[in-house]
Amino acid sequence: MCDAHLRGPSGIITSPNFPIQYDNNAHCVWIITALNPAKVREPGSIACRKKGVSVAPGNPRLRNQSCLPCLPAAPCLLPNPVLPPQVIKLAFEDFDLERGYDTLTVGDGGQDGDQKTVLYVLTGTSVPDLIVSTNHQMWLLFQTDGSGSSLGFKASYEEIEQGSCGDPGIPAYGRREGSRFRHGDTLKFECQPAFELVGQKAITCQKNNQWSAKKPGCVCK
Questions:
Q1: Before 19, cis peptide (omega within 30)?
Q2: How far is CA 67 from its chain centroid?
Q3: pLDDT by residue (tens digit) across 190-209?
Q4: CATH top class, domain 163-221
Q5: Are strands 174-177 and 82-96 parallel, antiparallel or unpaired?
Q6: What CA–CA distances, in Å, run from 65 to 53, 77, 217?
Q7: The CATH homologous superfamily of the domain defined by 1-41+81-161
Q8: 85 preceded by a cis bond (ω within 30 of 0)
Q9: Predicted TM-score of the model (pTM)
Q10: Inter-residue contact 218 to 196 (CB < 8 Å)
């Protein structure tokens, strides 16, 4: 589908005609918006022992919160805490554009084409690394010239918690140390015997929701 407003929590975006060649002179825009910029947990069921006193000894986030008003003979429920705002994670499965002539631009927010919010301008045949927005919206602009075309791209998007860079995955024939993906967290990689690492041995989740480098790969020695 070309030109669409998409909503979370997840979905797929492809270039027109994928997996066959896209059209010349294409101009497609997708804007992705999280379902809720700040999500709320599902209705809770933690009852209060008496009005105004919460019972949540195992959850410090809920401790000392007041009960919601309740009907006679019905338990009071704790107010549900608001979860951190959501951002958009974009992961590519296939990518093949005519290098230098056909491009996919990815940006922050809901205003497509705004140069101030551009995160990446993608072209060529290398599958891009994971991209994460800095707010609850992301835009994509696909543009092609008047001659020549390739197979295009397929990407999946998903809402994730703000303050996270998303799971970059583990390279084939490799191992990873670390399983947290929040700001300041570092992942370390190494390869199995008979393979050598290509890229950075360690990457860190930065405050712009992007990893400090692409996930490395493992190739035969």
A1: yes
A2: 35
A3: 999 999 999 999 999 998 88
A4: mainly beta
A5: unpaired
A6: 7, 10, 48
A7: Spermadhesin, CUB domain (2.60.120.290)
A8: no
A9: 0.69
A10: yes
